[in-house]
Every structure is written in structure tokens, then in C-alpha cells.
């Protein structure tokens, strides 16, 4: 992935130079994500800020985001164009043919729970259910890119791009349940969890890199993915697949939705046992005023999934 992702960007930039198209180029916008801060490795330093050090070292896995940013910066040197990099997180939205988002899998999960008449159990742990996260509406991110492409002050800058609120699943999950006509048990985390799973993340979490200067050396524990409902296992259960096929045929839904849904990705998003708080201060200082309520963004995405026949209508 490191080599391929870097080569894709470099080949594109080289082609612009070779063909002469580069002469008309003003700015390149590269979208990466919160893996910039190592959120896939364990607890990050919160809030995450663009000035945070890159998560590198001999014991760290390679991060193609860093390689791409180096390639982009080097290619722009001495040229008449510049760049902007964006770091969104946990993106909600819809893109035709691209199921790599948490909204589609979440909508399918709720749809089948309702079809089976079963409670909408939060797949992750109580720790993350009551913890904090930041999300990015794909529509808001598109608006940010348009703004950043034209704002002179954004030249050669990287920006976090999240909705502008900090949310928690303890507030979002009941709204998801209500939207899909499901119910949540009063004590869901006390129920048996036959499809549970656990994955230990990197032994040295990202926050450990700055722990000493924060007076927290030796206090940062490695992260864990804790799932009370392992969604990959759940999606293969016989009664679950049969329920989906009933709904799909009855409602005329996209036949590919189930197999292409990113169950492992949704499991990662919901299974973390640490907070992910992302600062928007830099973008605000540069003049960005965009904002969207996170539940409104989820609701809008579910509306779009209904229109595209990925989930049945609920309204």
C-alpha cells in the first residue's frame, strides 16, 4: 500500500508536468485522514492537532499518508502551484459504487435487526459507547475542499476537517434506533455476547510519543478493539443472511449491498476503547466557518441510502 499509493500520486503529478498541463495548475488538494494521528494504532493524543508529530519509528508500521505528503511537497517545490492536505475522520455519506463508509454498514445492521425483531445492540464496548468521537460529513468535506482550493491563505497547509461538534454514541445510538424502528435494551451491556471478539492494537499507542512532555509517561495503555457483536461474524450468520435476502427482495434493494458492506471497518470504528477528539481550531483561524450537526449528517446519509435502494425506506 505504501508503494502503490505513493506511486499513484507521483505518476499523476509527473504526467501533469510531462504533458504541460502543470502550467495551468494552481493547487492540488490531497485527502488522507485521521490515520495521520495513528488512530488505527491505539489511543491518540487528544485533541488531535495538525502540529502533532508524525507517528513514526522503527517499531511503527509504514503510513502511506506521510509518503504521499512528502511526494506532494517535493513535487511543488519551485513550481507555480501549491497544495492543501485534509484530514477527515469517520466519514458519513454516500458515493455510488463505494461502500467504504460506516453509514452503509450501519444502516444494513439496523435494517436486519428490525427485520428479525431483535434489539439494536451497540456492537462495541461500553467504554466507547460513552466515549467521544468526531465525524466528517462527506458533503461538508466537499465544501471545505472548494473553500480551501480558493482561499489564498491555505497555501501549503494541512487541515483537520470534521463536523465541528464532538459526539458520543450514547447520544447517537438511540437516534439510530428510533430512525429504523428498533429498540435498545435498558441494560444492553449486561447481556450475553456470544459473537464477541477482541483485538489488541499496537503495544506503543500514538499518545505514548508525547506522554513524557505531558507528564504521562508510563500511563498510556495500549488500545483494544472490543466488539460485543463482531459484525463480520454477525453478517455471516444464517438467520441474518436470510433476513437480508427477504428485505432485499421485498423492497427491491441493491443485491450487492450486503457483500460489499465494510463490516470490518464499521467494527473498527465502533470497537475502539479510546476517545478520538479532533481540533478544528486551525481551520477556524484560517477563516473556515462550515459546520454540520453530526446526527443531521447521519440522517441525511440514511435518506440518500434509501433513495439509492441500499436500505428500505423508514420514513
Question: In words, what does this structure look like?
Answer:
This protein is mostly helical and 315 residues long. It has a single domain, classed as NAD(P)-binding Rossmann-like Domain (Rossmann fold, 3-Layer(aba) Sandwich), CATH 3.40.50. Helix content is 39%, strand content 9%. The protein is built from 12 helices and 7 strands. It has helices at residues 2-19, 64-76, 102-116, 126-129, 138-150, 169-179, 231-234, 238-251, 257-260, 263-271, 281-285, 294-307, and strands at 27-31, 82-87, 91-92, 136-137, 157-160, 197-200, 224-227. The chain has a 3-stranded parallel sheet, sandwiched between helices. Strand 1 (27-31), helix 2 and strand 2 form a beta-alpha-beta unit. The radius of gyration is 21 Å and the shape is globular. The model has no long low-confidence stretch (mean pLDDT 96). InterPro entries: NAD(P)-bd_dom_sf (IPR036291), PRISE-like_Rossmann-fold (IPR055222). It comes from Trichoglossum hirsutum. Residues 16-183 form the PRISE-like Rossmann-fold domain. It holds the Pfam family PRISE. This is PRISE-like Rossmann-fold domain-containing protein.
Q: How do the helices and strands line up, and which of them pair or pack?
A:
Layout: H1 2-19, E1 27-31, H2 64-76, E2 82-87, E3 91-92, H3 102-116, H4 126-129, E4 136-137, H5 138-150, E5 157-160, H6 169-179, E6 197-200, E7 224-227, H7 231-234, H8 238-251, H9 257-260, H10 263-271, H11 281-285, H12 294-307
Parallel strand pairs: 1-2, 2-5, 3-4
Antiparallel strand pairs: 6-7
Helix pairs in contact: 1-2, 3-8, 3-10
Pfam family, one: PRISE
Protein name: PRISE-like Rossmann-fold domain-containing protein
Organism: Trichoglossum hirsutum
Amino acid at each position: 500500500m505504501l508503494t502503490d499509493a505513493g506511486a499513484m500520486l507521483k505518476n499523476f503529478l509527473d504526467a501533469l508536468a510531462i504533458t504541460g498541463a502543470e502550467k495551468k495548475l494552481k493547487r492540488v488538494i490531497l485527502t488522507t485522514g485521521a490515520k495521520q494521528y495513528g488512530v488505527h494504532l491505539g489511543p491518540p493524543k487528544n485533541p488531535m492537532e495538525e502540529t502533532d508529530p508524525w507517528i513514526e519509528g522503527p517499531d511503527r508500521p509504514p503510513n502511506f499518508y506521510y509518503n504521499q505528503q512528502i511526494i506532494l511537497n517535493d513535487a511543488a517545490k519551485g513550481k507555480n502551484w501549491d497544495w492543501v492536505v485534509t484530514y477527515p475522520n469517520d466519514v458519513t455519506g454516500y458515493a455510488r459504487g463505494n461502500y467504504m463508509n460506516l453509514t452503509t454498514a450501519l444502516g444494513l445492521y439496523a435494517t436486519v435487526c428490525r427485520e428479525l425483531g431483535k434489539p439494536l445492540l451497540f456492537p462495541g464496548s461500553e467504554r466507547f459507547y460513552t466515549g467521544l468521537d468526531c465525524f466528517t460529513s462527506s458533503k461538508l468535506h466537499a465544501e471545505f475542499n472548494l473553500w480551501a482550493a480558493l482561499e489564498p491563505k491555505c497555501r501549503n497547509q494541512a487541515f483537520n476537517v470534521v463536523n465541528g461538534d464532538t459526539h458520543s454514541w450514547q447520544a447517537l445510538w438511540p437516534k439510530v434506533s428510533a430512525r429504523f424502528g428498533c429498540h435498545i435494551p435498558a441494560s444492553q451491556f449486561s447481556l450475553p455476547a456470544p459473537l464477541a471478539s477482541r483485538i489488541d492494537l499496537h503495544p506503543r499507542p500514538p499518545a505514548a510519543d508525547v506522554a513524557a512532555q505531558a507528564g504521562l509517561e508510563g500511563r498510556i495503555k495500549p488500545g483494544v478493539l472490543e466488539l460485543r457483536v463482531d459484525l463480520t461474524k454477525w453478517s455471516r450468520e444464517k438467520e441474518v443472511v436470510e433476513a437480508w435476502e427477504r428485505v432485499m427482495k421485498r423492497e427491491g434493494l441493491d443485491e450487492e449491498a450486503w457483500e460489499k458492506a465494510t463490516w470490518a471497518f464499521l467494527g473498527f470504528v465502533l470497537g475502539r476503547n479510546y476517545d478520538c477528539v479532533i481540533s478544528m481550531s486551525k481551520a477556524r483561524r484560517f477563516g473556515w466557518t462550515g459546520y454540520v450537526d453530526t446526527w443531521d449528517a447521519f440522517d441525511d446519509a440514511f435518506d440518500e441510502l434509501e433513495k439509492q435502494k441500499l436500505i428500505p425506506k423508514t420514513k
